[in-house]
Amino acid sequence: AALEAVTVAEGVPALVAGAPGLPGLLCIQEWWGITPMVKQQALKLAGEGYRVLIPDIYNGKIGIDKEEAAHLMGNLDWMKAKDDLVRCAAFLKAEGSPKVGATGFCMGGALSMVGAQHSPDVVCAAPFYGIARSDLCQPETLKKPIEGHFGTLDDHAGFSDPASAQALQAKLDQAGVGGKVWMYEGVGHGFLNPTPDS
């Protein structure tokens, strides 16, 4: 599989891999932007039999250091990002994907939950070390399965640390659809990202 550029409704730029009509999956970037790591994850997932779409939330911008990545995420229009995810999921569905899921990393993990909350086409989400703000997503109300993945050494308080992950599990239990949080021993935030700054 190879990634190719597409434009979704309303001019949302994206990259896709895998054949149209396969089960769809939104693969959502970290705060860095669409880095080689995100592309690698998307291609790996496409190789497992999915039509994978990476929404370009930053419109081509990449954070080259932590300060710039923080600036990009800090300036993100979360409501527009939410709308973009809804459009991207609808795009996959219109292409013929029978179902669409969402996954993402850090900021993208949080956004995968936002996609599950707001898109009628997203049937489940698997956030990695990122939890959406309560004004964007209320996991306790979701009737879609969420499977979260977090590290026991994550120190991003209120976003992906163990206490936040445990609070997410309690909300998923309240939702009553079998959502589960997985904790990985001995790893911190960004454990799937092999780059030194992760």
Would you mind describing this structure in some detail?
It contains 5 helices and 8 strands. With 198 residues, it is α/β, with parallel strands linked by helices. The strands form 2 sheets. It has a 6-stranded mixed sheet, sandwiched between helices. Strands 7-8 form a two-stranded parallel sheet. Helices cover 33% and strands 22% of the residues. Strand 7, helix 5 and strand 8 form a beta-alpha-beta unit. Helix 3 packs across helix 4.
Write a compact overview of the structure shown.
This protein has 198 residues and is α/β, with parallel strands linked by helices. Helix content is 33%, strand content 22%.
Largest sheet: 6 strands, mixed
| Number of extended strands | 8
Q: What portion of residues belong to β-strands? A: 15-25%
Rg on CA atoms, Å:
15 Å
Helix/strand structural class:
alpha/beta
